[in-house]
Amino acid sequence: MLTQQRKAHILAVLKQTGQVVAKSLSEQLDLSEDTIRRDLRELAAEGLLQRVHGGALPASPALADFSGRQAIATDGKKAIGRAAAAMIRPGQVVFVDGGTTTVQLVRHLPPELEATIITHSPSIAVELVSHPRITVELIGGRLFKHSVVAVGASAIEAIARYRADIYFMGVTGIHPETGLTTGDSEEAAVKRALSRHAAETIVLASSEKLGAASPYVILPMNEIQGLIVERGTRDETMAAYPAAGVSVTVA
């Protein structure tokens, strides 16, 4: 089998089953595991999959920059944002992550809601400028331009001074085994800090992120409390999450 044929087969298996196991595929094709791993490395370098221990998972399309992500699954993000906004109670202190789905969250906050939103995202802060009753606290740091959020030691130090009731987390990959992932190590560190200083962490899970993986692990699934997913998400896709103790809300 030629290299391009092997790669096409790998991508077809990944699309059909949601994962590639190198050992199984090498046995199926009567090839060495080294050959399959080399193909996986090359496909990962092209951004076509995410290598994990023993094989590969789909690469998340949510790794595009902020402007590129605005065009992905817009209706689903609006529904998820609306459901997340409805979870916030008057008087709460809330961490809101950066991202296109969390923008939808703050756009759906009712005008009568009084609460404090703490964010490291200038985009989120600007969205709330005209909200009459929301107090906004902006966490500073080095601007990570790809996601338009503050990262670095100063951001993590500032986060440690807060105790939030709830944290709405954005990610680029969600997988029951790999956990919650994103495309930058410093961004992952900030998300971990936010989660650890909140009583509850809820992940906003638009469809393109489910079953996908990115290079940097934020947290395992058992360290969050809930997922908000789009209506129409297949039951078999979601079956593993309640088993990990994660509550699933359908938007």
TrEMBL record:
Sorted alphabetically, the keyword list is: DNA-binding, Repressor, Transcription, Transcription regulation
Signal peptide as annotated in the record: none
Superkingdom of the source? Bacteria
Mind telling me which Pfam families this protein's record contains? Answer: DeoRC, HTH_DeoR
Which GO molecular function annotations are given, in alphabetical order? DNA binding; DNA-binding transcription factor activity
Where in this chain does the record put each HTH deoR-type domain? 3-58
List the PROSITE patterns hit by this protein, alphabetically: HTH_DEOR_1, HTH_DEOR_2
Protein name per Swiss-Prot or TrEMBL = DeoR family transcriptional regulator
